[in-house]
């Protein structure tokens, strides 16, 4: 099986020892991704852009997503992200889970992890 690793050059990739995405076994596994911005909506938008770039480099898109997990330090902030998420996934929503937990840095308000099926 061929494995392709995709890096976004994010600061934690080298510090922690991971890459943004791995293409293997017909799937694209995108690591938990945080975004930049002053609030949860800006960070969600930024994270989706980063994930979208990784998916595109792998040859996939949001329509190919099969699973997504959202991590937030405050679950009350999640609803404000719903319009962005609905727009990103459109008529092809993946299964989803939202967890309330601490993130690697308190400045981060959302982290998104995603798995997509490579198009045939």
TrEMBL record:
Gene3D superfamilies tied to this protein: RutC-like
Family matches, as SUPFAM superfamilies: YjgF-like
Pfam families: Ribonuc_L-PSP
Taxonomic superkingdom: Bacteria
PANTHER family referenced in this protein's UniProt entry, alphabetically: BLR7761 PROTEIN, YJGH FAMILY PROTEIN
Name of protein: RidA family protein
């Amino acid at each position: 099986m061929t494995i392709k690793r995709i890096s976004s050059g994010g600061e934690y990739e080298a510090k922690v020892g991971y890459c943004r995405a791995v293409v293997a076994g017909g799937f694209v596994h995108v690591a938990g991704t945080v975004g930049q911005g002053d609030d949860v909506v800006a960070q969600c938008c930024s994270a989706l852009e980063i994930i979208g770039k990784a998916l595109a480099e792998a040859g996939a898109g949001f329509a190919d997503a099969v699973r997504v997990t959202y991590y937030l330090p405050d679950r009350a902030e999640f609803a404000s992200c719903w319009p962005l998420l609905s727009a990103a996934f459109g008529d092809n929503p993946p299964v989803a889970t939202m967890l309330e937990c601490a993130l690697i840095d308190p400045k981060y308000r959302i982290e998104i992890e995603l798995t997509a099926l490579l198009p045939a």
